[in-house]
Amino acid sequence: MRLESQRRFQLWEYRVSHGSLLIRSPMGPEEQTNVDVLFDGVEYIGCPRMMRGLSVREGRVDDELQAKACVGAVILPERLFVLVSEGASYYVVASACRVDENQADIFDSPFV
Q: Is the pLDDT assigned to residue 108 strictly greater than 90?
């Protein structure tokens, strides 16, 4: 899973019951689609509410030490996702991540 976009993304929705997180770049006058970054089984979220430009990639072994300092626990590399926006790195620890581009109403939830 990898994403690189110059669009504006926002923390859009979090479902505590299933640990589901949606980070969305909503469609608008200049964008014909939503770009959704969806995480399942979320254990840690460490990012700002709004990000201008976003790159998402799976964590690597060299990311573990920096993420451990933020999270305060040992992290399995396959559960670490690195979000980079405006030169800063942020972390999400989750069981899975996927990207979906769609034309759904911007307030529709993918978790229904």
A: yes
